[in-house]
Amino acid sequence: MVNIDRAADLMEVGANGAAWVAPLGTASPGDPALQPSTLWLPIGAISDDGLVQGFDEDSQEYTPWGYTSPVRTTITKSLRTFKITAWETMRTTVRSLQYRIPVADLAPDVGGLTTFAETASPIPDRRVWWFVVLDGDTQLGFYCPEAEISDRSDVTHKQDEMAGFEWTITAYPDEAGNTVYHADRVAATPAYTGS
Predict the structure, then answer these.
(1) What does the pLDDT read at residue 195?
(2) pTM higher than 0.90 for the full model?
(3) Of 79, 113, 174, 190, which residue is least crowded by CB atoms under 10 Å?
(4) Any residues with CB less than 8 A from the CB of 188 and at least 6 apart, and which?
C-alpha cells in the first residue's frame, strides 16, 4: 500500500488579510505578523473575494525540424499582479488610488464639500504596496516596491450591493530587477521518509 504524505498545516485558506500603500522608496514592513508603521496607509475592508495573486506568462517554444516536441522553452513575458476590491470607497487613501490624485487634494472645504476633477491624461501613479494573507499561524507577506493600479472595473451604486473599487495592481521591477518580495511565516515541511 502506498503511503500518501499529507500535512494539513501546509495548506492555506486566505481567512483574512489586508493591503497598505506607501510612497515610493518606503522599506518593506518585513514581517506579516507585525503592524506596518504610520508610513503605510491602510486600504481598509476588502471584499470577501480576498486577494488574487496573478501570474501572467508567455513563452516561446523551440521545436527542431523533424521533432514534434519542443527541446527548449524561453519565458518571453512574466507579469505579477494582485487583484482586490476595496470596499471602503470613502476612505481618502482608497479614493486617492482610484482617481490618481494626492490624498491632500481630498480635504473637504469648511462646508464639508470635497471637490476634484478627473484628468483625461492620467500620469503614472506608482506606489509601494504591502499585502498580507492570514490563516492562523500561516502568514504571507507580499512587498511590491514599485506597483500601480493598471485596471479599474466599473463601480455599481445600488441598494442591494456594496459599492467597491475593483483593482488590478501590476508589480514592476525595482532597481534589483525584482517585482515581488515574499515574507512568509509557514509551518516547516516534515522530512520525507518514504514510508
Answers:
(1) 65
(2) yes
(3) 113
(4) none
